[in-house]
Amino acid sequence: MLTALDGAYGDRADAVVVAGRAASYEELLAAARAVAADVAGAPAFAVTATASLETVAAVVGGLLAGVPFVPLPPDAGPAEREHILKDSGAVTVDVDFARRAAAAPAGAGGGPDGPALVLYTSGTTGAPKGVVLTRAAIAADLDALAEAWQWSADDTLVHGLPLFHVHGLVLGVLGALRTGSRLVHTGKPTPDAYAGAGGSLYFGVPTVWSRIAADAEAAGALSGARLLVSGSAALPAPVFRDLERLTGLRPVERYGMTETLITVSGRAGGEVRPGTVGTPLPGIRTRIAAEPGAEIGELQLTGPTLFSGYLGRPEATAAAYTGDGWFRTGDIAAVDEDGVHRIVGRASIDMIKSGGYRIGAGEIENALLDHPKVQEAAVVGVPDADLGQRIVAFVVAEGVTGAELTDFVAAHLSVHKRPREVRFVASLPRNAMGKPQKKLLLAGEAGPASQ
């Protein structure tokens, strides 16, 4: 599956660079073969997925051995770590990159439908579930993205994303090894690190891009790239505009989930609109399950990139699909006449039903972020005896009142979409991928708020 390791694109001493450490494809393959020998015959194996050459060798070693790789978040607490290991049945392995082997163990490998990765969900609706991804699904997704982004061995991919998520591990490591592009993982995704990496293709999440956009010198250094890709959460329109102004590039957004990999994306060289995630990748079909007369509804999809199921949870797997076999994303979206998708938010928390209207939180958040005094914004619906749900905005801002922000939104969107309450907070709680944790806001764990 990883054509770069077959010698298809030659070799170089710095084919893979992680946190300042470089390796050739030959060195990576030898280290991965040693991992394959260690894990051969295991049901699954787990490695603490730090930003390191060891993690890269681990995921490649698992593919060579035909043994599913379970990346453990480095910041996982004891309870989460214990749950993942017990649920997956994985053995833990310590990887020594300096240890090399000339060949993978006899009988190693695996068919295209065999499990390659078990990635655990965030557990926001219960204990984290193991998402089983096959080799075939990963290969199909990476090939579709290579076509969409014109991604090739001529590229140098730069990112500093965690290696225990789809974005950083599947796209950011396996994608580079399948396309043959040189990989530079910056260790941490700082503006200075991105600016100094000299890439042609950059991956980031909105938090990364907002910090780069706030650093004009760092952003200017990215003007020599050909493509900036943002994902894992919606890129605020002001950040999009700042990046375009400073780099001359319009960032491409894409949409995906752990269970589906990337399914919808903007295209390199195509029209890119702020607040949209493009059109379905080859082989992917989408539909919107909306109530009569509604413009937005749950995004459902089908295609070759979908997971094979939740590990050991057939009931949960079955519940994730409609009766006619389409995957329920749980995300609320709209599709325009050109087939361009816009993600509004999660059905569980971002679909607000207020005063008889169905309102997407993301649209209000983007409107708030257009205000020059607003740095961060998260919008939720809270129970209200009169409206059903009341629109509440949590905002990081200075020098502006809640009433001013309410009027600002009402002037940009329909009046019924204005926040009924604005709460000012010092910061928004976010997960490792930069997504706001709205349930923590509702639980009052973001600190005291004021009107």
Write the layout of secondary structure elements.
Blueprint: E1 16-18, E2 21-23, H1 25-39, E3 45-48, H2 53-65, E4 69-72, H3 78-88, E5 91-92, E6 115-120, E7 130-134, H4 135-149, E8 156-159, H5 166-179, E9 182-185, H6 191-195, E10 201-204, H7 206-213, H8 216-221, E11 227-230, H9 237-247, E12 252-257, E13 261-265, E14 279-280, E15 285-289, E16 297-302, E17 309-310, H10 314-319, E18 327-335, E19 341-346, E20 351-354, E21 357-360, H11 361-369, E22 374-384, E23 388-397, H12 402-412, E24 421-424, H13 438-442
Parallel strand pairs: 1-9, 3-4, 3-5, 8-9, 8-10, 10-11, 11-12, 23-24
Antiparallel strand pairs: 1-2, 6-7, 7-17, 12-13, 13-14, 15-16, 16-18, 18-19, 20-21, 22-23
Helix pairs in contact: 1-2, 4-5, 7-9
Notable features of this structure?
alpha/beta, 24 strands, 3 domains, nine-stranded mixed sheet, 29% helix, GMP Synthetase, Chain A, domain 3, 451 residues, Rossmann fold, four-stranded antiparallel sheet, Luciferase, domain 3
N-C termini distance: 55 Å
Helical coverage, percent range: 25-40%
The largest sheet, given as strand count, sense and whether it forms a barrel, is: 9 strands, mixed
Total of DSSP H or I helical runs spanning 4+ residues: 13
* Strand residue percentage: 25-35%
* Adjacency order of strands in the biggest sheet: 2-1-9-8-10-11-12-13-14
Number of strands: 24
Shape-level CATH architecture of the largest domain:
3-Layer(aba) Sandwich
CATH top level class name of the largest domain = Alpha Beta
Topology-level CATH name of the largest domain: Rossmann fold
